[in-house]
Each structure stands twice: as structure tokens, then as C-alpha cells.
Design a protein that fits this description.
Elements (H helix, E strand, L loop, with lengths): L15 H14 L12 H6 L10 H4 L15 H14 L3 H27 L2 H13 L4 H5 L4 H22 L6 H11 L8 H10 L3 H4 L8 H30 L12 H20 L16 H19 L5 H14 L22 H16 L7 H26 L5 H11 L5 H12 L3 H14 L4 H13 L3 H14 L5 H12 L3 H14 L4 H13 L3 H17 L5 H19 L2
Helix pairs in contact: 1-5, 1-6, 1-17, 4-5, 5-6, 5-8, 6-16, 8-9, 9-12, 10-12, 10-15, 13-14, 15-16, 18-19, 19-20, 19-21, 20-21, 21-22, 21-23, 22-23, 23-24, 23-25, 24-25, 25-26, 25-27, 26-27
Length: 588
Amino acid sequence: MKPITPTSSSPPRPRLSVLLVPLALGGLAYLGSLGAGFVWDDKHLIVGNTLLRQASPLPAIASDFWQEGERTDFYRPLVSLSYFLEFRLWRLAPAGYHAANLAYHLLATLAVTWAARLLFASPSAAVLSGAVFAAHPIHTESVAFISGRPDVLAGALLVGAFAFFVRARARQRRVSTASLALFGAALLSKETALTFPAILIAYELTAGVAPALPSAPVELAGRRIRRLAALVWPYLATAGAYLALRLLVLGAILGRGVDRTRLGARAVIALNALGEYLRLLLFPYPAAPDRLPDPAVGAPTVAALTVLVLILSALAGRGRSSRMPSFLFAWFLLTLIPASPLVPGRAPQVAERFLYIPSVAWAWLCGWAGARLWNSAWCRPPVRRGIVGALAVGLAAGAIGLTALRDRDWQDEYRLFSRMAASEPRSYLAPLNLGTLYVGTGRLREAEAQFRRALELRPTSAPALLGLAVVDSRLGEHERAIRYAVRARDLAPDGDLIHVQLGAIYGIAGRYPEAAASFREAIQRNPRRLQARGNLVAALADAGRPAEARSALAELERRLTAEAYPDPADMQMVAALEERLATTRRSP
């Protein structure tokens, strides 16, 4: 199999059979995710997201990705728009959002399969590539987790952009309008797409059209640079426009991260993370949504460095035959960079969702190598072909089974966070979320233990302090609850929900003026949060300020009426407050 060259009359068209096998495997592997509910970040991004209930999508797409609460460095308006539009279809029925995630994954599978057909000019390589990508168990976090959509949507768009680029190069055209449009859409889905111009350069220098030409005099460096610049400048201009938009919306181009880990330590962490990512591609078990790479030099560091040196040596020593593997390894490394611990200001983390786009290279490598093996002289005897075919079927069945097993982790939050705690004991997110679940079921002492465990792992965790405040408030320890809640507010003052919770704790303690002040602060930070306005009405009524309470209730009713899709819980809250104030007015 050779890359497409300019001598090709036209790029190969994907046959229906080439596409159906990967799609069937992907659908079968993730069918169980359709029965899952809202878990973890889904509750913030969808269930409690007031921007989805507005009449216009502009507030949603003109906000950072976290939408409400503390600001983040992520701007993904296309994903936010997809949630906004789907809310009109599904409301709070999680099956619709899960079905959309699966559909986007199947689109990504189509793009991977078609790009493999263009890269390798081989139907068998395309089928194998698509099948590996469709059913790989490492994708469960991205596909089965509604909030993992940025990776899936960006992956489908980015691979599609690459496929159109390869087709345009095969037709001896420099610019593909479809490729540029998909690249722009990928940028609006996840920041990983910023690496795409570098991917195109890597492709041109390794597996692209130019290396496939017959031997010719060595190209002058200046001429090569001009040729590459002519190919990528439209993509660089598109990326520049996206960065300008980020600056306009977020007030920063690349982020405002505050992690102060030194560069040398980051290099060690990045090497350990690379080793973990390579392991996960081969052995994607156990599932761990939050992994912390080892910051110390040890056996994993030596193993990762050894593997990296061996890969680079093998690629350097094989000459022309290593061009395609060299490109695939470049894709893998380049698309990992945005999530790498090497990025300044980013807290070091290893997450399975970060592998969704890099794993495209693994799928292509498996398809490329598998097709070469299948078509080799060694595999021509029927017995050997039968063995290889049986092995492939067994691997596919095992992948689908493991994917279905991992899907179950995303259907139950207790299972998800318990698994997280077992697989990564250093993660503070596991006890933090378990504590929140225990509070919801009234298991206050167990919740307290989990919040204290989270604080041991991260002493500056505002949510863990707030969790302790809620527990103490329910146990009647009001002054201690207030102290915890004030500390949490001082650590994370930007979000509105922390002020809502502090106000509630003040109210339970009978300190109604402080409660009203906290609710006003929450409203100032997020005027759309009707819960804060309802709590303000109650606090003012309890403080003996009925005129102010009625004024606040009138504003609450006005905003509720203005919502395109009001929350039934908010409507019930307003009705209860109206009855309460009416009773207060009738009282002597």
C-alpha cells in the first residue's frame, strides 16, 4: 500500500461495505450508553444550566464552556450550541443527549474510515482502521459521558478536515474549502484542533504527496518552506481568527492558568503521562476518569523513555518505509500536546478523554499494519488466514465486551466515583463527589469523612469545604458551618453557586440579613439563577422586610415568564413564595 500520489486519476471512493462494518461495531459497542442518565458534569452543563432555557442561543455561545459559575479557559461554542438546540428536543431526557453523542462518534468513525481509504488506498485497511476506532474501549469516557462531547465532535470534524485535505492534495489542489470549514468548526469544539496546521506539515514531510514522488534533486530549504507555507497559511489564518474570538470572549488567548509546577518537573510528568497513554491504548483497563501522572522519576519514567527511544529509532532506521508510521506517530504526539503537562499553567492530569483524537493514529496504524499482514505472502495459506481472521474476530468481540463493561461505570454515579477512588487513590475528585452523593441521601457522617479525605488530598478545595459546611449545617453546628462556608467563598469567590449555598447556611442559622446579602451577591454574579432570587425572597420575608420581599418576588416572576423553557421546580417555588407572602400580608 502506498500513499496517494498526483498520478492518481481520482481518489478512491468509500464503498458502502467499507463503512457499514465499523458503524455496526461502534453502534453495538456503545448501545448500552443510551440507557444512562446525567452524571457528574452533565448536571452542571445541562440540568442546572440556565443558559439552555433562554430564548436566544447568543448567551450560551458567547460564554466560556462551563457556562455558569467559575470561569474556565475553555471556549467551545459549537458544543454549547449543540446542548442548546438539543434541549429544545429532549428537555431533561438524558437518552436523547446520549444518542447524539453516539451519533457524533459514528460520524467520527466514518471520517476515520474514509481518511484511511484515502491514505492507504486499501478497503481492508480502511475497514480495520474504522473498526479499531469505533469499538476501542478507551473511548467510553468521551462517548458514554455527555460532557465528553467536545472530544467526539472535534474528532469527527478534525479528521473530516484532514480527509478533505488529503483528497485535495491528490487532485493537486492546495486549498479545500470543505477542509477549512471543518477545521474552523473543530476549533469551535475543542482547543486540540489548534495543532492541525502542524499535522498538515507533518503529513507533507512524511506520508504526503511530495515524499511519494520519484527521486529528484534535493529540494532547496527555502522552496520547501514556501511550499508548506502556501499549503497551511489558510489554516493559520483561520486559527488566528479563532484566537481573536477567544480573546474577545474570555479576555485571554490561551488561558489564565495558575499552576506553578517547574518545567523540569513538568517534563518528568509529561514522560510518565505519555507512558500511561501508550499503555491505555493497549490495555484500556481499569477505567479511571481522573488519573494523576507520577511526578517523580521512577520505573514508569524509564519505561516510557525506553519505549520512546525505541519508537524513534525504528522510525529513523527504516527510511522510506517508515514515512507512514512517522506521520501517524506525529499525529499522536501533536494532538496530545494541548492536554500535555508541558503546557504552562495547566494542572498536570491524565484523562482518558484526552486520547480520543490521538487514538485516531492508533486506529490507522492498526489498519495499515493489519492490511499489510493480510496481503503479505506469509498470510496467503488458508490456515494462516483463518488464524488471523479468528484472532481479529476475537479481538473485536473482546473490545465490544470491555467497552460495554466500561459503559456501565457511566450509568451509576456511585459506581463511577467508587471506581475512580479505587483506580486513582490520589484523586480528590472521587471523595468529593462521593461526599456530595452521600449528602443527597442523608448519609451525613459518611459524607463528612469523604469531604475530609478530599481536603487531605487538596487542602484548598473550596467544594470540599463547602461540603463540610453543608454537613455541619444539617447537623445543627451552624457557627462551624458558616466558618467552613466563608473559607470556601474566600477561596473561590467568582462562582454564584457558592454564594447561594453560603446564603442558605446563613438562613438556616437564622442570620437573615447575611443570608440576603449572600443571595444578592449570587444574583449579581449570575442574574439568571432563579434559585438565588427565590432564596432572597424567603430571606427578606424572614428578616421582616415584606416590601422588599414582594419587590424581589415581582422581579423573579418577570424573569421566570421571560424564560423560553421555565423549570417546573422554579414555577413551584414561585407559587409557594406567592402563597407565603400572601399569608404574611393577611396576618395581623
